[in-house]
Amino acid sequence: MAGGDAQKQTIAVPSKDPAKKDKKDEDKEAKVNGDAKGKGSADGADGKKDKKEDELSEEDLQLKNELEMLTERLKESDKGLHRPALESLRTLIRTSTSSMTSVPKPLKFLRPHYPDLKEIFETWPSSSDKALFSEILSVLAMTYTDNGQRETLKFRLLASEIGHAEDPGLWGHEYMRHLAAELGEEYNARSLEDESKSTSELIDLALLIVPFSLKHNAEADAVDLLLELESIDKLPQFVDKDTYARACLYMVSCVNLLVPPDDVEFLRTAHDIYRKHDRFAEAMTLALRLGDRELIRSDFEAPSNPVMRTQLAYMLGRQQIPVEWLQDEDDPMRDYKLMDCIYNTHLSSHFIQFAKELDVYEPKSLEDIYKSHLENTRSTLSTTVDSARGNLASTFVNAFVNAGFGNDKLMVGAEEGNSWIYKNKDHGMLSASASLGMSLLWDTEMGLSHVDKYTYSSDENIRAGSLMAYGILHSSVRSEMDAALALLTEHVESKSVPLKISAIVGIGLAYAGSCREDIVPLLLQHVADETTSMEVASMSALALGFIFVGSAHGEITPTILQTMMEREPSQLNDKWARFMSLGLALLFLGQQDASDATIETLKAIEHPISKQAQVLVDMCSYAGTGNVLKVQQMLHHCTEHIGVEREKEEDGQSEGAEAGASGEGAGASASGGAEGDKDESADEDKTNDLYQAFAVMGIALVAMGEDVGAEMTLRHFSHLMHYGEPTIRRAVPLALALLNPSNPQMALLDTLSKYSHDNDLDVAINAILAMGIVGAGTNNARLAQMLRQLAGYYHKEPDSLFMVRVAQGLVHMGKGTIGINPYHTDRQLMSRTAVCGILALLVSFTDARGFVLDKSHWMLYYLVLSMYPRFLITLDEEELQPLPTSVRVGKAVDVVGQAGKPRTISGFQTHTSPVRLGSYERAELGTDEYLSYANVLEGIVILRKNPGYEKED
């Protein structure tokens, strides 16, 4: 990986020649030594001698003469003189104090004698004197190294070989940095030459340098050295209570820039260090990042303090870790209080309490959001006509704005028979009744009784919507009763397609990320059965992808692959087929190279869906890793021009079939494999280039976890927007949305605003959705104003106006208290279920008119998987009751490698908890009165009294 290699090469390599540090010194040195390097001295040869005499003070002259005399002593045949001379040299070199910017005087004066000293060294027999001589030469070599010689290291190793060498740290910092730099080079050289070459002496030497670096606040240098020598696992034995925090912070920050397997090695080493120092919250964060079941379980069971375990349980609940990973179901020791924290049982009550504290509990009306009196609409027609399309948009706006509060006026608070559902027509009723689940989000007790009455409706769409509402209601929350599964199971076999689809989608939303094995047979039968419609099969595959996200499940994967191979090409051309590919891809989310075998199998399918599924699986496998090679691969897919390829291949259909089978031809060539039929419709063309839309989103998905990469991809997107095919241009706004959910940066808003006025209406519709996702739950005033202007601009364009309304609802999601950013816990962890929700919605917008703008507008509810309150609530440790305390909230600052104890936030404001946090904001406690059990102040945090706190008068 290019990024990783660059990191390896540039980490803390000091200047090869300290003598070059200062131009003045270089000139001086050249004058003193008469060395060829003195480029700066432009004096004539005659003036040189006088200057030399002038510049050397009496003290320096005396030192110079003494050093020359000691050098002569070493040339004597009398061995008795050697030891005292070496001892004197050592003392002079070590005690020489000089300015920080110049080379120490003894090294400067001995430099001309270095070649002679080397020759003398060769003639000496092995002895303790020779070992000391070797050490002195090693130090001198710092100022006299020919490129690539690495003599500082060579003589150091010789000294260790000949006899017992002294601790290298006694020669000072600069010497240690030189040794470290040469060690890395030597190790790489040996690895390239011959892998069997021994490197044990290099590692032994490195293990002398590491403790020195750690002792002298150079944790980064120690980590870099062990990285270069591929021995990072040896670090834990050297760090102590004073150095572990900075060393681990640096290691974790390096992970995004490393190539596999170094990245995982770093995380595991940092995890071991945290566990060694009983930092359970930090260790658990890294275990969750690794996604290692055994590690998560051992971390959860490690603390003896029950309050610490409760804090860890809240962390596990936020990441939605399956409870089965932690405890067996029949475990008699099951602690139900802990289970409630992992199940997020109290999420609804905490959220409503938070809303009341912030004074946003009262429901908002549609007019509060639209503010249509501020729209500069040319006609008043659109506001007066009570159109079904407008009402449908209002359904979603109401659902998103009042999500989780359980008190909206249109649905929950409506009079019997006067519900907003009846203001919608046909399939609109499905989304309207499902919106009840949004209003009552996370509140499983109240929610079930409210939704229940609609399950007996005579209208099929209302019944279907209520089933989906059950699923939406249970998103992110589990209960011992398992009500969602009990209520939805029977409808999975329903004869009615809307009921069947709603039940399947509902189960997918309710159990996303739970890895519940008992759901597999229920849904997998629809995927395997070739007689089921593509819609039902694809939705079942997607629901399984949600539930087993990132698990690479051994039964589901082959079944989906088998179905893709056996289905008719006409079925695979169906618009729903993309969701089957997505379901398969989500199984490998974050699994990196575990998906290689699946991608190879996909290449055997002779249909364009093969290429689409390959791109999806590949991009999901490396989601959030910042892997540069994968980004390049995705860009490569975007550069293929399908129309041109098709013309080329019209003559050679058989060749096209072969290319399609091997997965190397463009999507167009693969169509040659599908019986080579020349009369394929325009729809076929659409499916052919669909993989390019996925590739564009893939760039964003891979880069999203790493800030530098994410910024660099913005430039690529602007190029794709200028030069890309229509499919690619339509996907660019979706990719921008995926890159920055709930993070409305100015530059990004301006870009999307420009795209929202594009000549291609599909680009504009996607850009409007992207504006909603980027601003989701932020109440961003500038974005709200842009959307009001767009509502006026598109007042005659029903599709675009519908999207503007939905985007307005998204921006005010949860009245500004709910976000959809998958990254949490100081942006260290990626919520896999949140990525599922955003990806599923964006994939439906690769054909907006076929799904959301047609009859499948309920797909907007996929976002519920990524919705989570953006709060910080502090609880006391005894009763776990809210504990208001002073908290500073500001912009997160990167403090990796900074000296001392720098501030981790800037531009902060002080509030009393509970407080609302933005995507890139960080909080810290305002006073020392309490200490936190969690390492990151985010979500639900338990505090304990600080025993050493004394209240100021």
From TrEMBL:
InterPro entries, per the entry: 26S_Psome_Rpn1, ARM-like, ARM-type_fold, Proteasome/cyclosome_rpt, RPN1_C, RPN1_N
Question: Which GO terms of type biological process are on file?
Answer: proteasome-mediated ubiquitin-dependent protein catabolic process; regulation of protein catabolic process
Cellular compartments per GO CC:
nucleus; proteasome regulatory particle, base subcomplex; proteasome storage granule
Specify the RPN1 N-terminal domain's residue ranges: 67-375
**Where are the compositionally biased (Low complexity) regions?**
654-672
GO molecular-function annotation terms? enzyme regulator activity
The UniProt entry, under SUPFAM superfamilies, shows: ARM repeat
> In the UniProt record, does the keyword ATP-binding occur?
no
Q: Please provide the record's keywords in A-Z order.
A: Proteasome, Repeat
Q: Where is this region: Disordered?
A: 1-62, 645-684
List where Basic and acidic residues composition bias occurs: 17-54
Q: Where is the 26S proteasome non-ATPase regulatory subunit RPN1 C-terminal domain?
A: 896-949
The cross-references to PANTHER family, in alphabetical order and at most eight, read:
26S PROTEASOME NON-ATPASE REGULATORY SUBUNIT, 26S PROTEASOME NON-ATPASE REGULATORY SUBUNIT 2
* Record's function text: Acts as a regulatory subunit of the 26 proteasome which is involved in the ATP-dependent degradation of ubiquitinated proteins.
Query: Which family does the entry's similarity section mention?
Result: Belongs to the proteasome subunit S2 family.
Name this protein carries in UniProt: 26S proteasome regulatory subunit RPN1
